[in-house]
Specification:
Length: 765
């Protein structure tokens, strides 16, 4: 058993720590309770002595020691006096804080196992004034053991705090003092069997086991992802029904019949190259396909998805409340947790107050708007390459843009000067998601609401810089362009992303193992060294590992809801993708990556506000798609205002008869600037194009303005109805179940009763 002993004399590589105002002396202010003072006195010693830094070479192991964290250094750093001095100083400072280190040398690496004395964890429990789990409440005289997740979290916090010299562990890694650091995988076999296997794809996730191993933050991510996947089932079924119902109109639609029989209608040439007339009947197949997703059921499905998004979030809030109550975290305070860790690391820690600056906020808002404008401009360039090969090319560009967005968001967060790590993470989440949202959705917004609407008309097309003609919509309409883009994103791109997300870490891990086998094996047969080396060879993780998983799913959730009116199959493809994503992430975290540092949490944080924002944007975007991109409004207006049924329905006549001729404008070929270059039948006097313009002067017709007014009215009504439905659903479904509220109420009542009994006993004595 290791006991406190006097500090050994310093050698040449053990310089005295420089005295500085930032150096933490292990003295507590008198305001802390006597219990905390006693815990600290036992931990530090009455004369300032602390627990020893243990340096043990390979082969000297102690079974009782639990090494939760490992630092790795290159043996060549031992030959660099400056780096060796920094390394020794860092380890010496850990010793003064009550940490033990175990040194094991490999042939080319030096491993340092790090653990904190158990009395540091007693101090953690004392400062928070609440036990770790229900067992400690039943037996207060014998507190429950500190979970491994808590041990790792405290060790990681102290290791990543600033040293007396002003450096952090991250700075030391960048300077080559240490190569890397990681938390050890220990006892993960249970998760490997029950969770991290492809054959468990349809089995329920062991959320409690995930929490016990990876901490609450990771467990809540998988709990949310599992609930999201479960709730996709009704949305996928509804979308599939809407899509399949379009097959009933595949051959029976009056519009499709008119298009397929329009052999005598010629469409005006498109583009500057290969200019020729095309028969309207050539678009017959695409016209039938368009009615699979652009029909009357689209409006109903869009409203259904607005309701679905609200119900999904409200029931998730209820699920979260049950889970955190089960974990005994319902009343947990994140600020109190971070202050406790700061005090454990440095008893002289001074509270950092909240601060706000209107000047900084204005500067950040301006920079964010400039970045958004830049990304919208880039989307206009990328949208030209919407075919398959370009979709793959865009993925690489999006990855590069993601790295730029991440750096910009981090710089903006640092400029804003957040108080704590959790506050910094929250601010970073908002900024980074905003930039990523525009990066991923700008092309879809361009296709849905801008493409083909500012091109002018045949004979007078709008050109960039007077040279390049703008791209036009598909012959069957812009809805087909939007459908194809969504199909590529949700089908092909999502599948490729999942494959690369698994194959990348798997191949990287295999390559590291092969390099070790082809190189040289360690001379030591120490089982602990083998375990540390096994963890070292796993793929590294960082602060953004779990954040990136959340971001990936938020972007997918956006694609699933925001433009679902143009692609009803989005929930179905998202469901299939998520079933793979859950096991893929599980295998990555348990088998292929180093252990994520556990973090405590009682909700998914700012991501909940992101989901609510996406829900509102989905209502607005789907309303605009139905109003301005689809043919729903023009069909309804023609049916009741211009068509044969305007004076009453006639069973013998379809109300949409003549719609195609009504929706196509006439252009006289004599008005082409260079009609000789146009290929096609001779003696063509007129051609047709999709727009509402007069045949005489090509100005916008009366029908255009009538349609525009009705589109705006529909958009306002749709958004108000959908948002009202969302508000009613949010009110109707309570965020917290009554059983959870009653349980919390009973706990408070029981605590007060116990205090009364204790007070009465003290009075009697």
């Amino acid at each position: 058993m290791l006991v406190a002993r006097p500090r050994p004399p310093r050698g040449p590589l053990q310089p005295a720590l420089p005295a500085s105002p930032g150096k933490c002396l292990w003295r507590f202010p008198g305001a802390l309770k006597a219990k905390a003072e006693e815990s600290l006195r036992i931990l530090v010693g009455t004369e300032g002595d602390s627990l020893p830094l243990t340096e043990i070479n390979a082969g000297e192991t102690e079974a009782s020691e639990q090494w939760d964290y490992v630092l790795v250094a290159d043996r060549r750093t031992q030959g660099n006096p400056r780096q060796a001095c920094q390394q020794r100083r860092f380890l010496e400072e850990l010793r003064t804080k009550g940490f033990h280190c175990k040194r094991i040398e490999d042939r080319d690496k030096v491993f340092f196992g790090v653990r904190a004395d158990s009395r540091i964890f007693d101090l953690y429990r004392t400062l928070l004034m609440e036990p770790e789990g229900p067992a400690a409440r039943v037996q207060p005289a014998r507190p429950a053991p500190i979970p491994a997740t808590t041990r790792i979290r405290i060790v990681n916090f102290v290791l990543n705090s600033k040293t007396a010299a002003g450096d952090t562990l991250e700075d030391l890694v960048k300077n080559g003092v240490f190569e890397t650091r990681f938390a050890l995988h220990k006892g993960e076999d249970n998760l490997k069997k029950k969770w991290a296997q492809w054959r468990n794809m349809v089995r329920e996730q062991p959320i409690d086991d995930i929490r016990d191993y990876f901490g609450e933050k990771v467990a809540l991510y998988f709990a949310w992802l599992g609930w999201y996947t479960y709730m996709l089932v009704p949305a996928a079924v509804a979308g599939l029904v809407i899509f399949l119902s379009g097959f009933s109109l595949f051959n029976a639609s009056q519009i499709s019949k008119e298009i397929c029989e329009a052999d005598d209608i010629l469409l005006c040439p498109r583009g500057d190259h290969g200019r020729k007339y095309q028969r309207l009947s050539d678009t017959c197949v695409f016209a039938k396909l368009t009615h699979l997703f652009d029909n009357e059921g689209t409006v109903v499905f869009a409203i259904f998805m607005a309701l679905w998004a609200t119900v999904f979030l409200e029931i998730w809030k209820r699920q979260r409340a049950r889970v955190v109550l089960h974990w005994d975290l319902y009343g947990w305070d994140e600020d109190q947790e971070e202050m406790a860790l700061e005090l454990i690391n440095c008893p002289d820690y001074k509270l950092r107050p909240h601060q706000h600056s209107y000047l900084r906020s204005t500067a950040i808002l301006t920079l964010c708007l400039l970045m958004i404008c830049l990304m919208i401009g880039m989307a206009h360039v990328l949208v030209v390459y919407r075919v398959l090969a370009a979709a793959l090319f865009n993925s690489a560009l999006l990855f590069q843009e993601e790295q730029v967005n991440k750096r910009v968001a981090l710089k903006l967060c640092d400029f804003e000067k957040p108080r704590t790590f959790s506050e910094r993470e929250s601010k970073f989440t908002v900024k980074f998601f905003t930039l990523q949202f525009f990066a991923h959705f700008s092309s879809l917004v361009y296709i849905a609401f801008i493409l083909g609407r500012i091109n002018g008309h045949p004979g007078k097309s709008v050109r960039l810089a007077g040279l390049w003609r703008l791209e036009e919509c598909h012959l069957s309409g812009c809805m087909m362009d939007l459908f194809l883009q969504m199909a590529i994103i949700m089908g092909l791109k999502q599948t490729l992303s999942n494959c690369m997300e698994y194959l990348g870490p798997w191949l990287a891990h295999k390559c590291r193992l092969i390099r070790v086998k082809l190189g040289h094996a360690s001379a030591s047969e120490d089982p602990e060294l083998r375990d540390w080396r096994r963890n070292y060879l796993l793929n590294p993780v960082n602060t953004f590992s779990l954040f990136d998983e959340f971001m990936e799913m938020m972007i997918q959730y956006g694609f699933t809801t925001i433009f679902v009116a143009a692609f009803p199959l989005a929930p179905l493809l998202a469901l299939f993708s998520n079933l793979v994503e859950i096991r893929l992430d599980a295998i990555k975290m348990v088998r292929l990556q180093r252990r994520l540092v556990p973090r405590k949490a009682k909700d998914i944080g700012t991501w909940l506000q992101v989901l609510e924002t996406i829900g509102v944007l989905a209502v607005i975007a789907n309303g605009m798609v139905i109003a301005f991109t689809s043919e729903f409004i023009p069909r309804v207006v023609y049916k009741y205002h211009y068509g044969p049924c305007r004076k009453g329905a006639d069973p013998a006549v379809d109300c949409l008869t003549g719609y195609i001729n009504h929706s196509l404008s006439v252009f006289h070929t004599k008005d082409f600037q260079d009609p000789i270059r146009i290929e096609g039948p001779e003696n063509v006097t007129e051609c047709r194009y999709r727009d509402y313009r007069n045949a005489q002067d090509y100005n916008l017709s009366e029908q255009f303005w009538v349609l525009l007014a009705i589109r705006l009215v529909f958009l306002i009504l749709f958004e108000h109805v959908a948002l009202c439905i969302k508000l009613i659903a949010a009110w109707f479904v309570p965020d917290v179940p009554q059983s959870v509220k009653n349980k919390v109420l009973e706990d408070k009542y029981r605590t007060l009763r116990e205090k009364i009994r204790s007070s009465c006993k003290s009075t009697d004595v």
